[in-house]
Amino acid sequence: MSSTLFIALPLLFGFATPLLSRLGKNALAYTSVLMQLSLLGLALSLLLAHSSTTVELISIAAPLGISFVLSTASLLMVLLFTLLMTLFSLYYLFQRRANAYANESKFFTLLNMLLAASIGLVLSSDIFNIYVFFEIAGISAYILSAYSKTALALESGLKYLLTGAVASIFLLFAIVLIYLHVGSLNLAVIAEQFQLLPYNVKLLISLLLLIGFGFKVEVFPLNFWVTDVYQGSTSLVNALFSGIVVKAYLFVFFHILYLFLPQGEFTLFLLYLGGVSMLVAEVAGLRQTNLKRLFAYSSLGQVALIFVAFAMQNIQAVQAAFFIVIAHSLAKFMLFLALASLEKTEQNMHIDRLKQIDSPFLMVMMFLAMLSLLGIPLFVGFVGKFLLLKSLAVEGMLTLLVMVVVASFIEAIYYFKLMGYMLHKGTRSEKVEVSLGEKMIFVSLGLSLLLLGVFPMSIAGFLQNAAEVLLDQTAYITLLVGG
Amino acid sequence: MEFSLYGLSDIVLSLKVTALANFFALLIVLSTLTVLFIAPNYRLKRSFYLLFTLLVASLFLIVYAHDYLLFFIGWEVMSISTYFLLSFTLSKEALHKYILFAMASALSLFVAILLLYSTQHSFLYEDAKQSYLAMSDGVQQLFTLFMLIAIFIKLGTIGFHYWLVDAYEESHNLFTPFLSAMLSKMGLYALILFVANITQATYVLAVMGLLTTIIATFKAIEQESIKRLLAYSSIAQLGYIVTVLSVADGMGGALYHALIHTLVKLLLFINIAGVIYVTQKEKLSDLGGLIYKLPQSFVFLLIGIIVLAGMPPLGGFASKFMIYTALLDAKYLLLLAGVMFSSASAFIYVYKLIYGIYLGHPTHKNLEEVKEVPWTFLAPQYLLASLLVIIGTFPGLVIPYINRILGELNLTLLSFETIQTLITSYAQYNGFVVMGAFGGIFVLVLMMFMLLRSKAKKPKNRFDIAYCAEEPNEATHLHYGYSMGQELKRVGLIHLIAKNSSKYFYDFLAKQMQYFSEVVRKIYSGNLLLNFNIAVLFLIILLLWSLK
Amino acid sequence: MILFDLLFMLLVAYITGFLYYGLYRNITARFQRRLGPPVWQSFLDSIKFFSKEESISHGWMFYLGPVIMMSGAIMTLFFIPLFHTGESFKGLSSYGNLFLVLYLLVLGALGNALAVGASGNPFGVMGVTRGLSRLFALELPFYISVIALISVSGSADIVCIAASQTEWNAFAYPLLFIAALFSFVGMMGQAPFDVVGAPVEVYSGPASEFSGKFLALLMSQSAIFTFAKLVLMVHLFLGGASGFVELLAKSFGLFLFVIAFGAMYGRFKTPQSIDFLLKVPTSIAIVGLILATWS
């Protein structure tokens, strides 16, 4: 039953926020932390209790009803999401006095809907449920992005909404086609019969799925909305977008892909799509002077890297993908929280501001996050990139290898430009207050980047396990439909 | 010591103590100690020492690694810690330039080692040759290209040196000796591993090495800033080593010269750090006439430039001699001529260096109150200078150690009889006799000359010189030689050599890159209509492609 | 025994050097339709200078400079054997080699440059600058020729090179010889490459600040050094020498050629001489090297 809790608890909490907010000024923030902590605890206990690959299967009124599969792979994602969410709640709690959101209870409702939907996406084994969570996540994200109601925020919310609507149309169309031909919405059932479909139908469905999810997994050329959304939204929300939401979409997209196309018919195409996405994003980011937009470009690049890793469709690469997912989530989360700390005093996010800021602590933390993103050894970012590139080299995909490396180099150009701004020697006038609690969060994130980078073996086994589970199509089918 | 990484059995890492590693580790220890000796003179932040420790640790990792992955990790950590160490003093542009080249170097190395891994699934040095041979021809060339780019950037080989000179010039005076003596040596270490373990890219190394020595020498000649001059000289010196590594039996000479170069560059950079410390001036045009204020420093710089120019009887000649005979042995005669040519050209900049700082007339009045540098600067110089003199007198002293390395790498050993002599197939050279003869003759001539009882005194007025029957005064510009070498630019060939072509090239590249970025950025301009059009176009292409 | 050898070599070089210098002044004078001074005039001049009292020294580096220069010249002499046959008058050549000698040729110039720099005389420094700028261009053709000779004779030992000539290297490898001669003219400080000292018409050059005993030392050094360089050329290109008569004949012939050459030509400016040396003699030397070692 526990896996339903991951979805039910945030939803419940989300809708209970109006009540909770009446309890006291800080009640909402504190209870939110408590709730996230309990989710994290639950996920951890599941991890410790189960060493086998499949943790749980919950079916309600199968085969047409709702069913969730909590495997090692999805547990990994859930663990990551709850961890980030816990840190997020803590951070919000610590900086709340300075920067409380207007209409806090609504904010928390949306937040928890977003979390529930992200977890739901990861757990669902039913394509219609996936669509539902896709929509829930979308809607809450649109509103969150427009939450501050400035002109930029509203623009970004609207853009997000438009593109999201287009995406869901494609997805819905794909689902209709699937149901028409297969007569079931259960992923396992579809997976069993997908190979038998006529080529054209297969192609059409695949394309529709690719476009539907393509918007959400931010792949070129469907990622044009991302930078605007990141610029319009507050940094706190961005931290969630790049830390949680896009990872959930990526996971579910490749989950479906592995199930439907186990032979990897489109592998080469997807790989080059990812490679091109990465290059385009990094090149476009080269001259960017707005920090939020810049980090958006970097997110696009990193997500494309994860896309490449998943698209390789072999255990080593998927393990690498998980490493990059973790590394990117932690590091980007950290960067956006740092931006949020800067945002408390002023909205201006031009990179010149980095020359003014007098906060060595934040600087050091941002250095750590950036170095990890760049894949410098001793940071976890390196482990992921290394494993991915190794796997590319072993498979003989030298063009792609060079593409990824060139893109990484371009990324290094602008990240080191930022670092140059931060190291700028001059008078620094702008003081930024960072409370002890915030510091603890940054330090724990930074330390985890370093520790995972120096001792990657501590999680490598788990990630490999997750990769095996995610790629093992027959086991999944057996689990859901039986022999 | 071998161990596996990441819980993955397919990656084996290894640390191993080899003679080659020990050789470089010794250089690291020497450089670190001498550099730290002068540290108390500067007020440095605690983070500087922290980063410095990290840097030294990464150097040891590079040296003792026995597989390319650990080597790469050390390489990256070295680049990044150097970045932060440089950030204390470098301007934004120079710093950015440094890190871009460092990252390019690291990423090329990364690609190269992954290519190496892709065939035999091993990063170990022992398997490198096998892995290389298992590649197809195209991949072999690609691998060599990436590997050499990585190495050349660290070495500052000409064309890849764009970052180096600014970084050297603006780096902290404490850190410059280390940069020149150690960090560039890591590039050399990588090159030695490459040549010894994988393949000897003969022609590339020969051409690049020769171009480097010649161009860098002429660039050094035209500099007016002391540290820039020495930076170019560093490049040129490493060019000799690159050149000699292109021949089969060049390893001995390369190691010998690496040792000498480390010692001499430490000596020179510490020396000028002392000069800058007491005068606060970094340009040859602002200095001059310091010989009587800083006599000990003068002698050390003199020893330094004698070694740098490769003059007998000090250690510099021994290593040059090894390089020359190695090239001679391989019958690379024109290459040898080119190297000797650049070695002869080096006389100009070494003289310019010592003249600009210590000789001639002081340009500024306040130079007359300068005192000898603190003993913390002098002590390491005593050590380094005496080492150079000892090696000059007993050039065979280091041969057994070099032979141990050569034996380990399965190369032909150098012949060795006594510690006084260097023996090669073409000739031999007895450092002890040369040193003794020179000393003896010098003392005899000096004594006889002194017997003549000259009553000459130092004039009270420094303007008391032969000056076309006129008398110069304070306003007359007398410290003129600091700009020597400028007139060389009037010679067409030399002008061609010393052009700033790499600056133009990299500026052009950066400009094109920015232009390209501007174009690509249009996609993300926020114009939804445009974006959807692009997406639809993409979709159509995709459909056509998949229906094909 | 070796000390006697060395002393004798020094004496021979000293006397012959001054003799040649005197002859040079005479012959040049004849070229210019003058009578010229007596042959031993330079020698007497130097003796006189040694007895002169000079009033100014610019510190210890200035004082040591000429001494280093002298030592450099004597070192060069000692590491070049007088004869390639027999046992005696080899000097210290068995302890060194041709590369060492090539560097020793420059050692004196370095000492001189230091002393001139210490004097602070800008005209002196001007001469040094010209000398150093010209030096590398001067050396290049010479280096190429020497390398070719080392390669064909299989040794960098001067005795071996001299002994290995069945016919004179000058005839066996004429291009190399021609290229080396250009450099040699420059090394001897003869026109058209004599801009360093720029004797007679310009008040400059490394020697500007030296007077009295210093000048005397420089003159003696020049005499010894001239002889040493001639002997080196004889060994490298003219088949070496096994007796005094042969040595004097060959070296004087070479000397005669050099001064005749010098008397015939005008003077190059520094950039001109560099340009010329880098183009013509270097090309000749490269062709010569390729012809000599092509197999």
What does the secondary structure layout of this molecule look like, with pairings?
The complex is a heterotrimer of chains A (483), B (548) and C (295).
Chain A: H1 2-23, H2 27-49, E1 54-60, E2 66-71, H3 72-99, H4 104-123, H5 127-145, H6 151-182, H7 187-194, H8 199-216, H9 224-232, H10 235-260, H11 267-285, H12 291-311, H13 315-343, H14 353-356, E3 357-358, H15 360-373, H16 380-394, H17 398-422, E4 430-431, H18 436-454, H19 457-471, H20 473-481
Parallel strand pairs in A: 3-4
Antiparallel strand pairs in A: 1-2
Helix pairs in contact in A: 1-2, 1-4, 2-3, 3-4, 3-10, 3-13, 3-18, 3-19, 4-5, 4-10, 5-6, 5-10, 6-8, 6-9, 7-20, 8-10, 9-12, 10-12, 10-13, 11-12, 11-17, 12-13, 13-15, 13-16, 13-18, 13-19, 15-18, 16-18
Chain B: E1 2-5, E2 8-14, H1 19-38, H2 46-64, H3 68-86, H4 92-120, H5 125-134, H6 137-155, H7 162-170, H8 176-198, H9 202-221, H10 226-245, H11 251-279, H12 295-308, H13 315-329, H14 333-358, H15 375-393, H16 399-408, E3 421-423, E4 428-430, H17 431-451, H18 492-497, H19 501-521, H20 528-547
Antiparallel strand pairs in B: 1-2, 3-4
Chain C: H1 2-31, H2 41-51, H3 60-78, H4 98-119, H5 122-153, H6 158-163, H7 169-172, H8 174-187, H9 212-237, H10 244-264, H11 270-293
Number of helices of chain C: 11
Q: Could you tell me the mean pLDDT of chain C?
A: 85
Strand content of chain C: under 5%
Shape label of chain B: globular
Please describe the biggest sheet of chain B, giving its number of strands, its sense, and whether it closes into a barrel: 2 strands, antiparallel
Structural class of chain C: mainly alpha
- The Rg value of chain B, from CA coordinates, equals 26 Å
Strand content of chain B: under 5%
**Helices and strands of chain C, in N-to-C order?**
HHHHHHHHHHH
Residue ranges of chain B: pLDDT <50 for 5 or more in a row? none
- Structural class estimated from helices and strands of chain B: mainly alpha
Fraction of helical residues of chain B:
55-70%
Biggest protein-protein contact in the assembly: B-C, 74 and 76 residues
The domain tally of chain B reads 3
Helix content of chain C: over 70%
Whole-number tally of structural domains of chain C: 1
Mean pLDDT of chain B: 86
